[in-house]
Amino acid sequence: MAYDPQNVFAKILRGEIPSAKVLETDGALAFLDIGPVNKGHVLVIPKVEAATLSELPDDASAHVGALLPRLCRAVREATGAEGLNVIVNHGEVAGQTVHHVHWHIIPRFRGDAVRWPWP
Ligand code: 5GP
């Protein structure tokens, strides 16, 4: 799908709108989700223009991949989560609403109210 440089994550990357940063590298940025489905819900995005995972170049994908284990540890440490969901919604039909590829890292606690798939 065509990449819209006015999407909110592109604006976050350009510093045009604020975000609560969690971790940042040359190739990827992790920040708190503005509408968390659970305490400590984090998003991680590559610093390239790709609307979906299918459109992400291998080298950009590697930047996110390298960050994921560290992020999972940091989120578990910060929230005390017993488990995590690491999820990519690919395309509108699959629930993607922001068309800059992103990974959700969602802390999970036994008995919590998170339901999958969420609306
Ligand atoms: P999607 O449904 O595309 O997989 O997920 C998009 C996510 O982006 C949602 O969980 C939503 O809460 C989050 N989101 C949308 N706009 C903003 C924003 O301006 N800032 C932040 N931090 N998160 C956002």
Protein model, in words:
This protein is an alpha+beta fold. The chain has a domain at 8-55 and 79-108: HIT-like (HIT family, subunit A). It is 24% helix and 21% strand. The protein has two helices and five strands; from the N terminus they run αβββαββ. It has helices spanning 8-13, 58-79; strands at residues 21-24, 28-32, 42-46, 83-87, 103-108. It has a five-stranded antiparallel sheet, with helices on one face. A hairpin with a 3-residue loop joins strand 1 (21-24) and strand 2. The radius of gyration is 14 Å and the shape is globular. The model has no long low-confidence stretch (mean pLDDT 95). It binds guanosine-5'-monophosphate. Guanosine-5'-monophosphate is lined by residues 8, 17, 19, 31-35, 43, 89, 95-98. The site of guanosine-5'-monophosphate has 14 residues, from strand 2.
Q: Main traits of this protein?
A:
alpha+beta; 2 helices; 119 residues; binds guanosine-5'-monophosphate; HIT family, subunit A; 5-stranded antiparallel sheet
**Percent range of helical residues:** 10-25%
Radius of gyration: 14 Å
- Identify the bound ligands: guanosine-5'-monophosphate
CATH class of one domain: Alpha Beta
Protein name: HIT family protein
Organism: Tautonia sociabilis
GO molecular function, one term: catalytic activity
Gist of the model:
With 119 residues, the chain is α+β, with helices and mostly antiparallel strands.
Q: How would you summarize the topology of this molecule?
A:
Elements: H1 8-13, E1 21-24, E2 28-32, E3 42-46, H2 58-79, E4 83-87, E5 103-108
Antiparallel strand pairs: 1-2, 2-3, 3-5, 4-5
The protein binds guanosine-5'-monophosphate.
